[in-house]
Design brief:
single chain; alpha+beta; four-stranded antiparallel sheet; three-stranded mixed sheet; binds cobalamin; binds iron/sulfur cluster
């Protein structure tokens, strides 16, 4: 099949940015992953260890028949998201009762990627539909769409497929208008497709993300120490945050976009910014909510990953970081210090203590 036809079919599903690489292993990426795990930089993400580096860097470990990898990049920071996400405003809609609440200040920030439906599901659907089309046109395409949830080194594959380069902030930076504000996904094929050439661009002498990261989590170019990364702390870190961790998150309550906001490659991207959520209405909304009711309320968004307890813990920490405590805030914190979850209780008690 002509490469051009592949691009046409992908565009039909709203996927304008695609690349093709062979299904050979990625030994350098494997070494980097193993090194990261061994050095403890993956924090408590135990699922990043074990056999994952080997599996993630060898597409044929997933499908022995694979000869090629079709990688897609789906823009998520602005209006382009609607091309592939059926509900690009899903989070704003789910949080409507909170966003309408007053006062609007103080606010916490939610990273751009979480704004629409959970990208795992939305992008997987699109990739699945693309794979169906390919098979209809006689091109063998695997049944599995890879979007994060199975081991596959998507950034390294995207770079080898010529979709961009790995920036010093460790994200895949594309030459497209969306810059690094893209999700990555892949499908495998047993056909020998003509591979795209990797790009020659690099970050050059720029170091804006290294100096811009609020917590110094980019410990060397292309090397993130998740133990210090706000994205990890707010989304993946289980249980009670250490006091320095709670302070480090600042006003981010889910994810962090700073190392991409400062990146000049993103200067022309269509970008509606992070979602600002008023903290007092958010805390008041979360406190009486059960875990399941929270799941139902934000169901189709990425927030389910953190769940009610982490989001509440983060919102309380952010409140302590950014605001003078009004009587309303103090009353909410008193309620939160009796919450059924330890991470919420501890965080609330700590903020109250720091102000007494
Ligand atoms: C674990 C994980 C995290 C962890 C650890 C992050 C990290 N840097 O590893 C945490 C929770 C911190 C995280 C945060 C974020 N993540 Co994340 N995450 C992942 C996940 C599931 C695995 C990444 C991984 O394997 N890390 C281990 C490291 C060592 O590997 P790596 O960074 O991928 O690096 C590989 C290659 O880049 C290559 N490589 C690295 N450096 C160099 C240098 C050179 C010179 C070369 C040639 C190669 C090379 O080797 C490595 C091993 O394969 C991927 C999905 C996936 N399946 O890949 C998403 C993924 C990387 N995350 C993504 C996103 C969007 C984010 C956030 C922006 C979300 C947010 N706003 O909060 C932040 C960004 C933080 C940052 N600066 O990286 C996107 C990135 C899209 C893009 N444009 O690159 C991905 C690809 C998910 C997706 N399907 O779209 N994430
Ligand atoms: S996501 Fe935030 S904390 Fe993590 S490396 Fe980027 S700027 Fe630093
Ligand atoms: S801020 Fe500069 S160094 Fe960092 S990823 Fe962007 S271009 Fe590269």
């Amino acid at each position: 099949m002509m490469r051009e036809r592949l691009g046409e079919l992908a565009a039909r599903h709203g996927l304008e940015l695609i690349g093709v690489t062979d299904a050979g292993p990625l030994p350098d990426a494997r070494a980097r992953m193993e090194e990261s795990v061994a050095a403890g930089r993956m924090a408590r993400m135990d699922w990043m260890g074990g056999d994952r580096p080997r599996l993630a860097t060898d597409p044929r470990a997933q499908d022995p028949a694979a000869r090629s990898v079709i990688v897609v990049a789906a823009p998520y920071a602005g209006a382009d998201r609607a091309a592939w996400d059926p509900q690009p405003d899903a989070l704003r809609e789910a949080l409507a009762p909170v966003l309408a609440g007053s006062p609007a200040e103080p606010a916490g920030r939610i990273a751009r990627y979480a704004l629409g439906t959970d990208y795992h599901a939305a992008l997987r659907d699109r990739l699945g539909a693309l794979a169906d089309d390919l098979r209809r046109e006689g091109l063998p395409a695997g049944e599995v769409a890879y979007v994060d949830d199975r081991p596959l080194a998507e950034r390294a594959l995207a770079a080898r497929a010529g979709m961009g380069w790995i920036g010093k902030n460790s994200n895949l930076l594309t030459h497209a208008r969306a810059g690094s504000w893209v999700f990555l996904g892949a499908i495998l094929s047993s056909a020998d497709l003509p591979a795209d050439e990797p790009v020659r661009t690099t970050c050059g002498s720029c170091t804006r993300c290294l100096s811009g990261c609020p917590t110094g989590a980019i410990v060397a170019p292309q090397t993130i120490d998740a133990r210090r990364c706000i994205s990890y702390l707010t989304i993946e870190h289980p249980g009670v945050l250490d006091p320095w961790e709670a302070e480090a998150i600042g006003d981010w309550i889910f994810g962090c976009d700073v190392c991409q906001e400062v990146c000049p490659v993103n200067a022309d991207a269509d970008d509606s910014g992070p979602l600002l959520v008023p903290l007092l209405p958010l805390i008041a909304w979360l406190l009486p909510l059960g875990g399941r009711a929270f799941g139902r309320a934000v169901g189709s968004s990425a927030l389910t990953r953190a769940g009610r307890h982490r989001l509440l813990r983060n919102a309380i920490a952010a409140l302590g970081n950014v605001a003078e405590l009004t009587p309303e805030a103090l009353a909410l914190l008193e309620r939160a210090s009796g919450d059924r979850r330890t991470e919420v209780r501890v965080q609330a008690a700590r903020v109250l203590r720091s102000r007494s």
